[in-house]
Amino acid sequence: MTQFLRFRPLYQDRVWGGRVLETSLGRKLPATGKPVGESWEIVDRPEAQSVVQGGKYDGLAIRALIERHAADIMGPKWDASRAFPILVKWLDCRERLSLQVHPPASVAPELKGEPKTENWYIADCAEGANLIVGLRRGVTREEFEQAVKNLTLENCVHRFPVSKGDSILVHSGQIHAIDGGNLILEIQQNSDTTYRVYDWGRVGLDGKPRQMHVDESIKSIKWDDFEPKPVRGERKNAVIADANEFRIRRVPLAKGEKLRVAAGEQARILSVVDGAVRETLSSSADDTAATLTRGENVVLPYAGGFAFEATEDSLLLLTENFG
User: How much is the pTM?
Assistant: First the structure.
């Protein structure tokens, strides 16, 4: 399999969303009148399936694709029944998300949930935008539980400013929220378990308060996790996230520079967060089919070798080590 795999986005209405995916990434969003908070770019779950867009496998769901071509896509040792292990999303956070946590692997089975480690890359943000990750230094479980009752949780969590190009790795068990004004590329474990502990007094799209999961959250939070630091944006090649679940490399390219990916090593995900690149080894007669522009996320199969040339100054993220 020598072609990269591009998928059709799956858009999700969210009470905290907006229309920035349209204005910033040039997407055509559904005309539902509802705020769109998420675009699921690559997903292999029973309730949500990415579908290939273009090329030989156009219209094929990712699950069927892997079942038929597991060795080519994921490598010769990959179990074809195993789901693609990464979920990639764009998040348009016009308003603040709920204060939430994902259960660690040690707790998830008891709660009938799934662990989720995720990385947030700030593709753009409003002036004064912030993130919330981890506890404020010294906060105890007892103080946190009292703050839940008093509706004063903002005093317990670590809130910090961010700029375009910053990123942070959020592990399962870390309390977190995204403040309004952030456009984020989220690369995460294939999981959809979220426990909300506080929602700032907001109601959902149906006009009713959203469900909270206070007990589950208290059981999931890591109580020694104080004030983690983000990776600040720089225009240089670097590993920006390194976890058991995946690794993400930041790859800046000046116009005309190339990124080469060898065949037979591992499956990878390529994300274009700024600029545009052209796949120079593509056999496609349609040159536009081999061009990736800002906002696109594609799978680079195990069996393919690739070379991408920047058609303008560009910034890429390469996700690997998820096999």
Answer: 0.95
